[in-house]
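Retro notes, structure queue

What went well: the backlog is down to a handful. What didn't: a couple of records were mislabeled last round, so from now on we paste the full input next to the output in the thread. Example, using Anti-sigma factor from Pedobacter zeae:
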Amino acid sequence: MKENIKILFEHYLAGKTNPEQEKILMDYLADPTNADSEFHETMEKTWAKQANEPDYSATAVEGLAEVWSKVEERQPKSRLLFPFVKYAAAIVVIISASLGWYAYKKAQQPIETGISFLSKTTQKGEKVKLILPDSSIVYLGAGSKLTWPSHFVKGSLRNIRLEGEAFFEVKHDASSPFIVHSGQMQTRVLGTSFNIYAYPKDGTFSVAVRTGKVKVSESNGGKLKQLSLLTPGMKLLYHLKAHGYAISNGRITEVNAWIKNSFAFKDVSLPDMFQSLERYYNVHFELKAHKLNQCRYNATFTNKSIGEVMEEIRVMSGKKMKYKIDTANKTITVWGEGCQ
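Corresponding output:
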């Protein structure tokens, strides 16, 4: 049996196993009684065939993305995400070998201990400041979710996952690149400050850089494609469905303006603006006139109540847009003849 498992493990790393064989392998590895020295020796020999440097290739990153998805599938509602449920040891062992973490795992901790993760989800109208294990700072926007490991390993990738919006102030560490995974998009830095907008339902993804340099890539079908290197003042806007993107230069002060309750919109349609305002102010919009869908605005709202924001939008529309705020139900009904 053990000999078959060793062969199966080697085939797995070579990408030659089918789902049924992978299940057999994970069932075996998930059993703590099977974590014997013979298997470790097999892993060590297999690892010796790999490159000595950590693997940052598209294949390795894609493998890590699978781990992230399994973490999210199995996580409880509480903040602390304990080691994976059934296949914890198996997943960690296999991905460790693929990503270049095996040497550390073998020397520092038992392989079967798994990985613990922390997670924070904000509600509409809420934003929080988080400090990661490496002292990097994250400002998490409304209606967003951040997931990160309980500790980072020196010399290995600092991988975290974001759904929503966040501004990052990353502590510089040339030996440990910091990578933010947002759906099929990946943002990689060494130490810098930047903003990511990645709400899955919006269909758009953006990265805006305040300091340092950021590399943005797209993961598609297991292949990692670099889109652009961004420097201070640059912003990349990516359309998920069309797989197209554009790069612009903006004002650095707008990158993280929302942290100080300043919301900037540039050539944004009214429905898209309302979608963002719903998150920022924890309200719900009901747009009753289709003509208003074509209205586009440039606007910045700083320390304004939602009532003040709506009044400014009404004025910008040439007073053709009308609205009614239902405070009790946190609902804003909008109608009108169009825009100016």
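Agreed that this is the format going forward. Reviewer comment attached to the example: The first helix runs from residue 2 to 13.
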